[in-house]
Amino acid sequence: xxxxxxxxxxxxxxxxxxxxxxxxxxxxxxxxxxxxxxxxxxxxxxxxxxxxxxxxx
Length: 57
Description:
The chain is mainly alpha-helical and about 55 residues long. The protein is built from 2 helices and no strands. It has helices at about 5-30, 40-45.
């Protein structure tokens, strides 16, 4: 197997299954905050910057 055919094989794999894997990974990361039961952790993360706020005093 020559280097050229190895490159072509890997490129074909990346163009097909690599793209599918990246779409699945992106979809999982984009939908993770919207899963059931994550409201408490999302609210805690949203208000974290105000936890030690003492109104500028």
